[in-house]
Amino acid sequence: MIEMASIIVRRSFYASASQARSVGVLGIPMWRGQKKLGTDLAPAKIREDGRLISGVETVVGKPVRDFGDLDLSSYSQCDKNVTHYMAKTAQSIRKSVIHCLRECEQLITLGGDHSIAIGTVTGHADYVKEQGRDLAVIWMDAHADINTPMTTPSGSWHGMPVSFLMHEMMAHLPRIEDFKDWPSSISAHALVYVGLRDVDPQERWFLEKLQVPNFSMRELDALGIHKVTEIALDKVDPLGRKSLHVSFDIDCLDPLVAPSTGTPVPGGMSLREVAVLAEAIASTHSLTVFDLVEVNSLIGSYEDASKTIQSAALITRWMFGDGRQGNTSSSGTLES
């Protein structure tokens, strides 16, 4: 375990000293994938706070390119035909992600609820396909988000995105006219879950039947975060050649450090546990898209919202190479 920890830290140090990278940020102000207003405000609140973007700029050594917020005004989030709305917005998100990735090396998408991942992951998959590469996804969440419109207990689309992304789930989806031409993006073995602790019975059946790699908080407690990190990365990208997509739901964290979110579940990951995985991800130099979703500043107090946004900012910095031992930016020099 100690040996694994030293490997992660050492690799993270060299990653932080790498050449300046172009990073973009795209806001996706969406709330319709669940039932609580407020996730649509997150992109603006995170920008207003400033810590996330300024922190990433410090780490990567150059200004972040802000692509602004995706305009969803042409699709009413109050429309009764939720399925039609989801299909239209997913297509818009998909196209926007492709556009952004053609303009920058790495992209941060600021949700919004987790239903945005139907579009972000598909757009990323389209982009890497153009390059002849494969995609790997790390899904960090308290929930599995692999329900279908037929199995969902809540009817909320933020609990369904994986079922619209995974090849093997196509056989379990009902025919949906609005999604009839929607392509699946990833195989079951190319996605790994970390942080699960609230999984519906039907979702557990899907995970077991399709043999989707997953680590609940029980596995994290039993194995330790360093071992889980090692196995998770090896499962989805054993050769280190894929383009990596991290889809991070803030409820992956324990509510003590991220209280302002719609579906908090006690007993979540600590900031230190996420830091270990984030630093290892940064050290691979493979991270291309980072989704940050389900921050809701309307839940809890002002202090709760500020704490949640601060946690989000820290995690994003770590994902982009700010190791806890210190960051050596591309503009810095090393003296003997």
UniProtKB/TrEMBL annotation:
CDD domains, sorted: Arginase (cd09989)
Keyword Repeat among UniProt keywords: no
EC number: 3.5.3.1
Keyword flag Nucleotide-binding: no
Enzyme class: hydrolase
Cofactor(s) recorded in Swiss-Prot or TrEMBL: Mn(2+)
Alphabetical list of PROSITE patterns matching this protein: ARGINASE_1 (PS01053), ARGINASE_2 (PS51409)
GO annotations of cellular component type: cytosol; nucleus
One GO molecular-function entry: arginase activity
TM region positions: none
A family per Pfam: Arginase
Alphabetic keyword roster: Arginine metabolism, Hydrolase, Manganese, Metal-binding, Urea cycle
Recorded catalytic activity of this chain's protein: L-arginine + H2O = urea + L-ornithine
GO biological process: arginine metabolic process; urea cycle
Co-factor: note: Binds 2 manganese ions per subunit.
Pathway: Nitrogen metabolism; urea cycle; L-ornithine and urea from L-arginine: step 1/1
InterPro entries: Arginase, Ureohydrolase, Ureohydrolase_dom_sf, Ureohydrolase_Mn_BS
Source species, domain of life: Eukaryota
Residues involved in Mn(2+) binding: 114, 141, 143, 145, 249, 251
Family: Belongs to the arginase family.
Protein name (Swiss-Prot/TrEMBL): Arginase
Species of the source: Varroa destructor (Honeybee mite)
